[in-house]
Amino acid sequence: MLDLRRLRYFVTVADELHFGRAAERLHIAQPPLTRHIASLENELGIRLFERSTRAVTLTPEGAQFLEHARQVIEAAEQAEVSAQRLAHGTAGRLAIGYTSSIPMSPAFSAIVRGFSREAPDVALTFREVAGTAQPRQIESGVLDIAFGWAASDHADNADQADGAVAQLTVARQPMVAAVAANSEYAACAAVAFEALAHESFIAWPPGQGSVLNTALHRLCAQAGVEPRLGPRASQVAALVALVAAGQGVAIVPAFAASLKMADVAYVPLINAPVLDQIIAWRTHDPSRCALRFAAFARAAATAG
């Protein structure tokens, strides 16, 4: 196995064609440099340099070997850079899961876009995963990072750990009522949920939007009513479209108001429940990229 250090010594002497100047560049004494070159020649079984009292020149074999030596050194340097990027989490792969409503949120796009700019050598893949299935897929390694929702029950965005999964709050979203634009509520500055309690609610299917459905059922419980459930939909845009079609009222995160539909109005709820938008990752042996992503999301949430 060739000594990479001796290859670097050889290339430096070939560049300078002078052992003294090469030794100065390498910050070593000339006699050890001469011995290293002689050892390399013995190992290879060829003479690399012709030496005289007046000049040092490459032999034909040395000139040909120089091309290969440069390629080996360049490959070694690239490998070292790649290893450093992997160690710092700026290269590699991340599998990111998200619930169906998450891509509409400003925090999701800001964090993903910002991380891609900071770590362009990290390949990101995305898949939609129901919130109830995310912890299992994180633990099994199918997902590295997951975006989802949680009930807002703490005052800051500090990391929370629950066994094999850690989570961080990256944004908070109050719930609002999506109502028909011609309804009596549309012109209200805010509305109490009790005023809507008799309406038909467009909700998420079982197994999807569990935290959002829980918020709706909690509001109904506080109002002392059983929710009248209308059609189900698995996308925020579909919920809002069903409101526009006159099929009921939807309780949705505030960012849904970015969906501009002529037949829909978004009305703040008095004492509205607030949801935490979270990211989650493995606590046991997470990838460097996942930790880098979590650190970036933490900084972005703090700055935001």
UniProtKB/TrEMBL annotation:
Gene3D superfamilies tied to this protein: Periplasmic binding protein-like II, Winged helix-like DNA-binding domain superfamily/Winged helix DNA-binding domain
Keyword field contains Lyase: no
InterPro entries referenced in this protein's UniProt entry, alphabetically: LysR_HTH_N, LysR_subst-bd, WH-like_DNA-bd_sf, WH_DNA-bd_sf
Stated name of the protein: LysR family transcriptional regulator
Lineage, opening ranks: Bacteria, Pseudomonadati, Pseudomonadota, Betaproteobacteria, Burkholderiales
Signal peptide: none
SUPFAM superfamilies from the UniProt entry: Periplasmic binding protein-like II, Winged helix' DNA-binding domain
Annotated ranges, domain HTH lysR-type: 2-59
The keyword Electron transport is annotated on this UniProt entry: no
Pfam families assigned: HTH_1, LysR_substrate
Species of provenance: Paraburkholderia tropica
Lineage top rank: taxon: Bacteria
Family, as annotated: Belongs to the LysR transcriptional regulatory family.
PANTHER family, A to Z: HCA OPERON TRANSCRIPTIONAL ACTIVATOR HCAR, TRANSCRIPTIONAL DUAL REGULATOR HCAR-RELATED
Keyword terms: DNA-binding, Transcription, Transcription regulation
